[in-house]
Design goal:
The chain has 244 residues and is an alpha+beta fold. The strands form two sheets. A six-stranded antiparallel β-barrel has the order 1-2-5-4-3-6. Helix content is 17%, strand content 37%. The chain is globular. The termini are far apart. One of its GO terms (molecular function) is riboflavin synthase activity. It comes from Rhodotorula diobovata. InterPro entries: ATP_synth_asu-like_sf (IPR023366), Lumazine-bd (IPR001783), Lumazine-bd_dom (IPR026017), Riboflavin_synthase-like_b-brl (IPR017938).
Amino acid sequence: MFTGLVETLGVITAISPTTEFEGFSFRIGNAGDVLGDCKLGDSIAVNGVCLTVTSWDAQEGWFEVGLANETLSRSNLGKLVVGSKVNLERAMAGHGRFGGHFVQGHVDTTAKILSITPDGDSIRLLFSLPLEFYTPLIPKGYIALDGTSLTLTHLSVPKPGDEHYEPGRGLFGVMLVVHTQSRTVVAMKPVGDSVNVECDVVGKGVESVVRNVLEGGGEQGGALELMVERAVERVLARKGLMKE
């Protein structure tokens, strides 16, 4: 579990095919700030993806992680090259202060940067996201982009003829303050580039439960189903379509 508060920016120093499984191994340098208490098998989020440390040297400031095909298919890590900067965050300590929000390090998908607009000394970014990942998002809710905890400032689903309309995709926006711009990779990316997206786990959990009940997967006559039925009945009664 992570918080979405990036600790430092690492740099990809080597990319090698792995013999243990079909995938790649990254060596990440400039990482001394996250290696002081590192142990074999520890989790470090790299651009929001929870990866396992397979080797490291705290004095030289590097560590290595492996990337399997599932990771490569879900995230943008496969597009990184030697020299790419990456957000780094250690797994959350149970005794520390909890900032940001609950970030699992399990990326849902990627989103495309559509526009970058200055707003004072901050910048606003607009993204395009497949609708299947759009429903857990709520105004002023949380989202993790490349592992950075951010607040949603815009949500919309364009109609045909609207700017940025793409079938099956919705829009969301965030704002980056000066501090976030200087400490994360998101602000370094141009229009057209992609970011890793992890939707808020609380929103995903609520959506899953409600969808399961409404689609018939929940226990018939359960509390949630009864609550939904009563809500629908009240709406119909207010419209005069049925008696209370």
